[in-house]
Write a structure and sequence with these properties.
Blueprint lengths: L14 H27 L4 H11 L6 E2 L1 H8 L3 H13 L3 E5 L7 E5 L1 H21 L11
Antiparallel strand pairs: 1-3, 2-3
Helix pairs in contact: 1-5, 2-5, 3-4
Length: 142
Amino acid sequence: MTAADDTPGGPPLSKRDFEDLARFRFGIRRYLRFSEETVRRHGVTPQHYQLMLALKGFPERDWATVSELADRLQLRHHSVVELVNRAQAQGLVDRAPHPTDARAVRVVLTAEGERILGRLSALHRDELRRQDTALFPPTWEG
């Protein structure tokens, strides 16, 4: 974080701004709690769900490298390697040769990973619909 990141811009926040920010933060936390509890009930860790979602949602292809996943998940490379190892042991993902870089591997969803991800993501979509406006970012007065 730089010094510029610590200096707020614009006018001071109003009471309404604080209420909107608190509502948004509460919505995020409620959604994350829902997600954590739901995936665990289905035998998957929250980290595995996030990994599978990052793979399926990767732009323009159905696989990603460990480095790309580390960026998407905001984790260190070695942490993603361990996460992929655990997910592979559970049959959720697999490794395949990279088409152009012999030093890298593609991480891909297995059929079982696809099935579990589809079910869990549909439940997440339904929860987002239920939360409706709780997850709309605040609109600032100033």
